[in-house]
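Subgroup meeting minutes
Present: P.N., E.W., G.H.
Scribe: E.W.

1. P.N. recapped why we're keeping a running log of single-chain structure predictions: easier to compare across weeks, and new members can see raw inputs and outputs side by side.
2. G.H. added today's entry (403 aa).
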Amino acid sequence: MTTLTDRPEHLPHEQPVPAGAAREVEFISLSHLNPSTELEPVPSRGIDLPYFRRYVRSLEEGGYDYTLLPYGSASADSFVVAAAVSQLTERLRPIVALRPNTTFPTVGAQKLATLDQLSEGRAVVHLISGGSDAEQARQGDYLPKEKRYARTSEYVDLLRRSWTEPAAFSHDGEFYRFDDFGPGFAPYDSTIPISIGGSSDEAFQVGGEKADVFSFWGEPLADIKSQIERVHGIAERAGRTDRPRIWVTFRPIVAETEELAWAKAHDYVEKIGRTFQSGTFHKKYLTGDRPQNVGSQRLLDLAAQQDVYDRALWMRTAAATNAGGASTALVGTPETVAAAILDYVDLGADLVSIRGYDTLNDAVDYGRHVLPLVRQELAHRRATGQRGTLQAEHLGAFATARG
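Output recorded in log:
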């Protein structure tokens, strides 16, 4: 048996739970289409169907609630992959990453509603306004960044109108114009959750005013706290009666002991660094220039100040990849990583994305060793109003130990 309270530094023993800190927390992963990773790139045609089926099945069996289907100019189409996920699983909710420049809003609404019907109400959409001018230009988008977020704002309004208007409507806006659309194809239920992320002023404004979910990359606790407060403040000033749910993303590196976890972390960062420097993975991030998007700039600035923040947040992986996407790690035993996740829950996070660098093995390990710890601690808090008494068994060997 192991306990979070075996080590007092993990969680205070039997301390009152802060308001809202016993909330339900849902877990997100990311679906990978083939076994190529940042640790070990392998040539691929793009989709290894047996691997993809195994991956998605592992997420469902591991207790994840959602899986993100990412989008890039050279990636698989997120809508098609999400439809496959919806048919390969019964409970897992597909999150479609969608760039407003690639799909007209009424068409996007139709495609999302179709996915929602096929999955019996499981569809979610994550709107990506675009953080890189070069990447946007690859698919013919030349709007400046501040205009891209204004376009996202208009896009959100049109998605929701397309799903709910009982009669045909016309629109003549800054970015989109059409006549007599609708009534549109309806979702399975009344609507579909819309997520927005980013670290720029424009992202905060649009997300705080209109998003159902606002997403962050993993940053130190103090920084995430101030950003959550900023989002909520914008929501309140916009007259919202609700607040966006908060989504935070990490890349945990987990092992049976602290020593093994940190040895694995240093091994990983060396391999990741070699992969990125060789240009065999995400070449678009390897220009040598400072990234254009504010989120990556923030991660690099934090990494330059120190390697480790708070309980277990490690920044070296972000530095090794030029902060190309979500790249900050939580390092330690399952107890340490679960406790670190709960630190963010205490601040207001209720959607936690954890995806590893050893993609499939890490997804299995998190489902066996991390998710149960977090959920059992939260169940204890709800039942008692206290925290820190969780006890949980390690459920077998780590997947990475089997190779």
